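anyone seen this seq b4? input:
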Amino acid sequence: MSTKAQIVFSHGNSFTAATYNVMLQALQDRGFEVLALEKFGHNPRYPVTNNWQPMTQELVDFCAKHPPAEGQARYLVGHSMGGILSLMAAAQHPQLAQALVLLDSPVLAGWRAAFVRYGKRTPWLQRYSPGRVSQRRRNEWPDLPAVQRHFASKALFANWHPQALHDYIHHGTRPEPSPTEPQRHTLAFDRKVETDIYNTLPDHVEPLLRRHPLQIPAAYIGGTESREMRQVGLALTRRITQNRIYLLPGGTHLFPMEQPEKSADMVVQALKDMGQ
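predicted toks r here
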């Protein structure tokens, strides 16, 4: 594999790209140039809309601003939301990259996609989607130590690599002082944007791929304990990847932050297995 290969990484919903620094640094240590847009959905030029097309265009435009050098391969790697954005971008722009790796980004299809499509037209999706939680997510703390105490106490983060948790605390929040709380911190990823993303999940990927068949090899890496993978299923994902499915033992949906070094190793292995 060429040490000059470029990886364009796309993050999952609610997590800034810097949260993945440990995994991204591991990929750099393995010889890749790694680029990542810090936050999707926050640029008013690329708003969150149904089926995420403006955000997909945001990724395409980001790639255009960072073209690979002559003879340099480019790969799209995305976690969760970022994997779906990468898939849609690669399908609609066949020259964008030479390969695609989805990190726990199972693709909605069949009756599940129809269910989500129907849910968007009713109160059902808002009631049962992750957006129900994100719209009420705690959004501010009096200081950075309070941020650390808050997230360190959450079961969701119990298995995270310590540096990944540190990066989330320091890059997933930002200073926003107020007259009464000069050390105040707030979430860097706007919770309304996060909620809107959950409530506009793409339900059209299957027909999109019929119109724009994916022309590059793809692979999927999931965590064996991923609830999201079980909920969505892998039927369409297996077809997209030609059954290039890799499972990380013990990993949940957030395995890139739980096992970042192993995650990087699996990305490298998947690319090798695709002949990259």
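The two ends are 6 Å apart (CA to CA). The mean pLDDT is 93. kinda curious what u guys think
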